[in-house]
Amino acid sequence: MSGATVSFRVLGPLEVTAGGADLSLGGPKPRAVLGALVLQRGVVVSVERLVTAAWGHQAPPDAVGSLRAYVSRLRSTLDSDAACGPRYRAPGYVLEVQDDQLDSAQFTSLVGQARTLASIGDHAAALRSWDGALGLWRGEALAEFDPLLVDPGAELARLSELRLVATEERAESLLRLGRSRAAVVELEALLRRCPGRETVAVLLMRALYACGRQGDALATYAGLRLHLVSELGVEPCAPTRAVHRQLLNHDPDLVPERAWAGSILPRRGADLVGRAADFSGVAAALCRGRLVTITGVGGVGKSRLAVEVARRERPRFADGVWLCELASLTTGVGVSLAVAAELGVHPRAGLTVEAALAEYLSDRQVLLVLDNCEHVLAETAALLELLMSRCGRAVFLTTSREALSVGGEQLWPLVPLDAQDAAALFVQRARASRPQLLLDPRSMVAVTGICRRLDGLPLAIELAAARMPVMSAEEVLDRLGDAGLLTEVSRTRERRHQSLATTIDWSYQLLDAAERRLFVGMSVFAGGADLAAVHAVCGEAGSTVLECLDLVTALVSKSMVVARTGPGPTRFRVLETLRSYGIDRRTADDDLAHRHALYFVNLAEAAAGGVQGRDEAAWIERTLPDGDNFRVAFEHAVAGDVDLALRLVSSLAEVSQLRLGFESAGWAERAVSLAPADHPLFVAASGAAARGAWNVGDFDRARTLALRAAGRDPARGSARTAYPADVLADIALYQGEVDQALAHYAASVEVARGDGDPIRLVWTLYYVAVCQAVRREPTRGLAAAQECLSVADGTGNPTARSMARYALGLVLKKSQPLQALTLLDEAAGLAASVHNRWWQGVALMEAAATRAVRGDPLLAAHDFLEVLDHWQRVGDLTQQWLNLRYVTRLLVRLGAREEALVLHHCITAAGKSSPLDATSADRLLASGSPSVVAAAHGRALRVTDAVAYARDSLVRAV
Prior knowledge:
- There is one protein chain.
- This protein is mainly alpha-helical.
- It folds into eight domains: 1-164, Winged helix-like DNA-binding domain superfamily/Winged helix DNA-binding domain (Arc Repressor Mutant, subunit A); 178-260, Alpha Horseshoe (Serine Threonine Protein Phosphatase 5, Tetratricopeptide repeat), CATH 1.25.40; 276-413, 3-Layer(aba) Sandwich (Rossmann fold), CATH 3.40.50.300; 419-509; 513-574 and 582-589, Winged helix-like DNA-binding domain superfamily/Winged helix DNA-binding domain (Arc Repressor Mutant, subunit A, Orthogonal Bundle), CATH 1.10.10.10; 591-715, Serine Threonine Protein Phosphatase 5, Tetratricopeptide repeat (Alpha Horseshoe), CATH 1.25.40; 736-855, Serine Threonine Protein Phosphatase 5, Tetratricopeptide repeat, CATH 1.25.40; 856-958.
- The chain is 62% helix and 5% strand.
- The strands form four sheets. Strands 8-9-10-7-11 form a five-stranded parallel beta sheet, with helices on both faces. Strands 1-2-3 form a three-stranded antiparallel beta sheet, with no helix packed on it. The protein has a three-stranded antiparallel beta sheet with strand order 4-6-5.
- Helix 40 (857-874) packs antiparallel against helix 45.
């Protein structure tokens, strides 16, 4: 084996390979000698210790001579020129092994890498490193040997402990990423093996709590305490008891924000003042019924109360708490689309958006918060009536200035703050901007007067308190009087509206001219904007970004604008009540709407190019928060500027279609219907519209839209999903005409090479490999997949690199399953890093399918639970049916034969081929009882039923 790289594997039974081939090491004794040398690599191991490793403490007289013979044979086996074999160095032997030759060294390195990534908050990348590290283990390290004999340095104990700690830290990353269910599955299994390990129990308690299973979390603590007391005579340690107290108190800080299923709720600012009774009342109402509407005048604090209730109640909801803000919608048409986008649910063929939402939520325990419904009452009420009737476990909390009038609705009228709480709020907000503020009794009298004049409305009080850095309380009270607020009259609803309007007007009048212009200009944004957008759309001519920032900062300090920080740039938003005021101050001839539309079209075009390069993640994070602004920009453009509309939809095909949802594909369809066929962007827009129809499984509409391009291709550099001919080829592929699709993509490969377009070349090579895999000739796709990987890595583009790894993993999954698993896991991680849901889904699915056959079936079962949910959100039924086929096969392997039989009938009754070969299917049918077969036929007509049944079956199986 001279010249071949020798690799040593100790994380499981001892294995040695050279050039990929296993080496024969002989019997147990020479294997034990080699094991001891590997564990002490680079260190001289005495002859005495090696003898003990091989024979124990009762070695024969000729043991030393036999040891020399073993070492000689090992040296010959490992390398004929002895460069890699054991060498004598008094008083024993030494084996030199480099880090890249030893799996335990690679494991330790990957653990360090994962910890570094976790420490900087990149838990997605850390998770991939954890998986790579733990995936090296094939069982207990050198379990065939007695560790006391072969490992006097306790290296095996160190490795086993590091493996356990790595598993715990991986679970922490899962929690940080919001994958609490996945963490529960793994931690429960780990706690069964290590029932007294407190770190595992604490992680499991947190994961269960994040899943809404407080009772199970408390039971975990009780079980841990019982074990510690009965087995060791000790109580749980102080940190564990602290977590137990957090469980009892429903402490929202128990679990990291992203670990909760659902929306990332706005960060808490100051404490909620004077709403304890309201909070308790709304929470109790949510327990009594499934729809609660918080009503009240503008500025009374409805949204703030709803968010706080959602934050504290989320442990009750295993499938998450979701916040959908409707204030930015200009019409009711977008209500369902806005809710679907927040949930990540895509429409699909044969279903309206509303029906897709109802199907997705049908068996999920969620709390859905719809904020600011008053301007879209009818559409919101219609959606809620549908969801209430079809989603028995879902609960809804809405805010509106008036009732929705939906059956079962409970109203919670939110009244202004009483005098004491209003004064407390004023002082809190005043000290937020002036921390050293001292208020003597005379000043407090003025504060009480201010709050009385403002009718206890929190928004009005906050606006007035924002003036305290430059005024005294007495001056604020005097100015409120000068502003013409009503004096003591009956406290009617109309009075409160006027109180708020007058306070807003007073605050507006106190702005200087530049601040007023910027405040009015910012009302054009839907859902807020970052500083770059504010400056570009609303900034004064010739002003710098820093000058614009100074003005924005002044508006924030005066409570006219809210700043929200997050993972991306800080976003600035005008609250809806104030935004309405700003819109009323706009003049009929201002060009804000056009400047707004032009800015976001330019942003979309820049992003469309950027997401084809190395900085794809940065561009996606930059554009994802602006879905509402893109919607407003499109509506402005399509009303009078078709060219601008085509520019937007042809760019958004690359940026948002597989991320924000397929709404932009509908915009493309509308724009194409208005555009001339010879427009330079007509083909790309037609491709974007056709791809959207294909994604939801509407192949007939997709074909019609693609054919409008009359065989033309879009310009070089167009969106990956904007090629009409690709859509036609994909329809052929999914309808069984694989050779037709292969011919198209093979020809397109040559065109891409000729154009020097690496992104297009990756796409076409990817599909050549996929087509060969579908034809069951994966080896014929290997060259295309390998070229795809080489080209993709050259681009540095995450989506391209994900596609290439998927393609290569797909063609290798039967011949080289371990390498395929690594590639598929990498593909899923790369796609997830840029929010590319479709490629993430296919990679997750193929990895789970490969793991089910070649790896750990229980881990595969957990993975399939995630994939079932993924495809139900994304709405791709073609992929979901394929997923159900894989799940059926896994259930057979797990021994869940009756459940597999039910899914078999569901799939075949839907006109799909059986997921099992003929022999397996016959055996499964013969084993099923008549009642099970009858039940299967009863479930066979709806894919939703099959998905729900598959989910329940996997949970029972694991």
